[in-house]
Design a protein that fits this description.
Radius of gyration: 26 Å
Strand order of the largest sheet: 3-4-2-5-6-1-7
CATH architecture of the largest domain: 3-Layer(aba) Sandwich
Number of domains: 4
Number of helices: 22
Bound molecules: adenosine monophosphate
Helix content: 25-40%
Largest sheet: 7 strands, parallel
Structural class: alpha/beta
Shape: globular
CATH topology of the largest domain: Rossmann fold
Strand content: 15-25%
Length: 575
């Protein structure tokens, strides 16, 4: 099947697809469309966003759906609202010439009453996030008795977001006779487990770049200790002028901290993470797509909803645990035939993690030196000329009368002056700054116990906080995010405790007493024995708390179904 016209899809679908400009099917479509059209087995497809997977599962199902029935036949579950809207939009496009087919998107963060109203129109297709689908099941607003096809899209992401129970409930609530198609970028243990329990004799397809690393991406790593990391990042940004990049962080708090640091230092940057409201996230994504900002600091999950082709760099501000996530993140650059650069910032004690990523992915990641002030100025000068040579047209009327008498200067002197003028601030900033490149990877740190390492990290954090408070204007962390109420003193972490990020904060009128109550409620199954509770930090938009390690799973299992003043609660282990 090299052309859509060679597939057995109906003329209505082919016409819609043709209008979208699809000519030949992508790899996943070539494998999936004939399978779904002709086979009754379940399917596991390893494929990432950007491979054309939405059309791969939708087109053959749309071809077989019964448009005379007004019952839900096709259910797609996906992790985020953005993806949900994207899939629903794609399906609307594919069904442009199928007037009797209706689809509805249902997702959290939006009026459930409106969604219940649109369900009254009896769509045959539902695209939803697991939490909202469960809500609607509980309200008896969904009849799943005629479901024929269930798609779990980005199953790995849904599981890592903690939707395991919801997925299992939905799979149980849908008829046994359905066909289940599981799409996932990675085959994590959880995905394997859920496939084993809920899929029958699945056919397996693997496409795209999971182990197929893009050759046009150059991978570099830089060693920087915790307290130098943001400064190292600044230098890397300054030495790559004209970049359009995503900086990946591990937690929401880290994402916000890095974005605040960049914004305070004058960069056109912003943060994208799950603690922002939907409207804020939409605005940030729009600004980035329009290039009103050229640096986006994001968590892996939040960045999923964003599809941009022209990224010059991907920065791993923190390394992911899963090597496949590293490949996935990096693959966001080097698209559409362009070259890309993937930059990793590595703490000295992370050599083992880096080695693991290198050995699993077979990617060559070369060590580079954090640029000095001199390197940065050179790169900036080159950037200015690169921009100058890109100017091919006049944007305003220019005539010699606009230029004062410059006959006292040679051409070289004028260029020199212009560059000095243009780069003055940067040059002053880097004058006499310390070289950050002397730090080396150390296996010694790796071999130390986790406890010592944690203490070291906390010590570094303490120093970093102190430094942020320094008198220098350019380093003055104006936001109090991340400092907590411990007065900036380094604190040793108790290895019997687990620290959690919690999505509510002062803005939600959360008090320490509330957190204590929430923890007690979420960990009350061991009868009268209560979880030991450690430090609680309530920040503006979110909080942190520590509890006894043995209660971790119980807390995580319960908290996502609890509410505080009507708001959903989310906790995740903080590192
Ligand atoms: P997806 O992986 O489903 O997110 O799709 C990635 C992008 O590829 C979307 O913008 C689709 O509209 C587009 N796309 C999907 N299939 C094709 C195709 N066969 N030819 C051209 N573009 C496609």
């Amino acid at each position: 099947m090299n052309l859509f016209t060679e597939s057995n899809l109906s003329p209505d679908i082919l016409k819609a697809v043709g209008e979208l400009g699809y000519e030949s099917p992508t790899e996943i479509q070539k494998q999936t469309i004939p399978f779904i059209l002709s086979d009754i087995r379940d399917l596991i497809a390893l494929a990432q966003t950007g491979t054309g997977k939405t059309a791969a599962f939708s087109l053959p199902i749309l071809d077989m759906i019964d448009d005379t029935s007004r019952k839900i036949q096709f259910l797609v579950l996906c992790p985020t609202r953005e993806l949900c809207l994207q899939i629903a939009k794609d399906i609307k496009n594919y069904t442009k010439y199928m007037p009797n087919i209706k689809s509805t998107a249902v997702y959290g963060g939006s009026s459930i009453m409106d969604q219940m109203r649109s369900l009254k129109e009896k769509p045959q297709i539902i695209v939803g996030t697991p939490g909202r689908v469960i809500d609607l099941i509980n309200r008896k607003a969904l009849d799943f008795s005629a479901i024929h096809w269930l798609v779990l899209d980005e199953a790995d992401e849904m599981l890592s977001m903690g939707f395991k129970d919801e997925l299992e409930t939905i799979m149980r609530e849908t008829p046994e006779t359905k066909q289940t198609f599981l799409f996932s970028a990675t085959m994590s243990k959880e995905v394997e487990r859920i496939s084993k329990n809920y899929l029958t004799n699945p056919h397996r397809i693997s496409v795209g770049s999971i182990n197929e690393v893009k050759k046009n991406i150059k991978h570099e790593y830089y060693v920087a200790g915790y307290r130098n990391k943001k400064e190292a990042l600044k230098r890397l940004i300054d030495s790559n002028p004209n970049q359009y990049s995503i900086i990946f962080c591990r937690t929401r708090m880290e994402t916000q901290e890095v974005a605040d640091f960049l914004m305070q230092n004058g960069y056109a940057a912003d943060a994208l993470h799950g603690d922002l409201s939907q409207a804020q996230r939409d605005t940030v994504m729009k600004k980035f797509r329009l290039k009103n900002i050229d640096i986006l600091v994001a968590t892996d999950v939040a960045a999923r909803g964003l599809d941009v082709d022209s990224l010059t760099h991907v920065v791993h501000f923190s390394l992911p645990d899963d090597p496949e996530v590293f490949v996935h993140r990096s693959g966001r650059t080097g698209r559409a035939g362009k070259d890309g650069i993937s930059i990793s910032l590595i703490k000295p004690e992370e050599s083992r993690k880096l080695k693991q990523i290198k050995s699993v992915t077979k990617i060559e990641i070369t060590e580079s030196r954090i640029p000095t002030g001199e390197d940065i100025i050179k790169a900036q000068v080159a950037g200015v000329f690169e921009n100058l040579l890109e100017v091919h047209e006049d944007y305003f009327d220019f005539n010699d009368s606009l230029i004062p008498d410059l006959s006292a200067f040679t051409k070289e002197e004028l260029v020199h002056k212009l560059l000095q003028f243009q780069l003055k601030d940067l040059a002053l900033y880097y004058k006499d700054r310390q070289d950050l490149s002397e730090q080396k990877m150390s296996n010694r740190d790796d071999d130390r116990g986790g406890r010592d390492r944690d203490r070291g990290r906390d010590r570094d954090r303490g120093r970093d906080r102190d430094r942020d408070r320094g008198p220098r204007g350019d380093r003055d962390g104006r936001s109090d995010r991340g400092r907590g109420d411990r007065g900036g003193k380094p604190r040793q972490r108790d290895e019997n405790m687990t620290r959690f990020f919690f999505n509510l904060g002062k803005k939600d009128q959360l008090k320490k007493l509330d957190v204590l109550e929430i923890i007690n409620k979420a960990t009350s199954s061991k009868g009268s024995k209560r979880a030991e509770i450690g430090n609680i930090e309530i920040l503006e938009k979110f909080s942190f708390f520590e509890i006894e390690k043995s209660y971790k799973n119980e807390l995580l299992g319960n908290i996502s179904s609890m509410k505080f003043k009507g708001k959903d609660m989310r906790a995740e282990e903080a590192n």
